[in-house]
Amino acid sequence: MKVTIKNWNAIAQWRWDIGKEFDETDDEDLCGICRVAYEGCCPRCKMPGDDCPVLWGECGHVYHMHCIMQWIEQQPPNKQNCPMDRKPWITAERKTANTATQQTQAVQS
Q1: Are 62 and 55 in contact (CB under 8 A)?
Q2: Do residues 62 and 30 lie in contact, with contact meaning Cβ atoms separated by under 8 Å?
Q3: Does residue 80 contact residue 73 with C-beta atoms inside 8 Å?
Q4: Which superfamily is assigned to 47-95 in CATH?
Q5: Where are the domains of the chain?
Q6: Which candidate, 21, 43, 19, 22, places its Cα nearest to that of 31?
Q7: In sequence order, what are the residues at sequence separation of 6 or more whose Cβ sits closer than 8 angstroms to the Cβ of residue 104?
Q8: pLDDT at position 103, please?
Q9: For every one of its 109 residues, what pLDDT tens digit does the chain have, with 9 covering 90 and above?
Q10: What one-character DSSP code corresponds to residue 95?
Q11: Could you report how far apart the first and last alpha carbons of the chain are, in Å?
């Protein structure tokens, strides 16, 4: 039997890789400042995606870029802390699971 596909509609979904498995019931998939999902956009943006990325702090907390930048701008220069744990905010270098695995293998070599 021969099958001919006449029409095909692709559907895709994307997520920011925040370093953990997705769980729809988990509140940690929300920005701690605006309380909007990372896959959405912050209140300042109209469309999610590369124009509204997420930033990781060295403390491990994740926020929409515009949310944390606005938070930092509102704080006195000597009190620019993470809103969740009040540690000094330092933007961390992003490490995905693949990067961590490669670094581990390089150290073991």
Answers
A1: yes
A2: no
A3: no
A4: Zinc/RING finger domain, C3HC4 (zinc finger) (3.30.40.10)
A5: 47-95
A6: 43
A7: none
A8: 46
A9: 898 989 988 887 666 666 665 555 555 578 889 988 888 888 888 877 778 888 889 888 889 999 999 999 998 888 889 999 989 998 887 655 554 444 445 445 4
A10: -
A11: 53
Question: Tell me, what amino acid is at 33?
Answer: I
Tokens for 106?
């390089």
Chain-centre distance for alpha carbon 46: 17
Q: What one-character DSSP code corresponds to residue 94?
A: P
In this structure, is the dihedral angle defined by the CA atoms of residues 35, 39, 42 and 43, taken in order, positive or negative?
negative
Token pair of 38, please? 């990372």
Q: Is the pTM of this model over 0.70?
A: no
Look-up of token digits 């699971």: 97
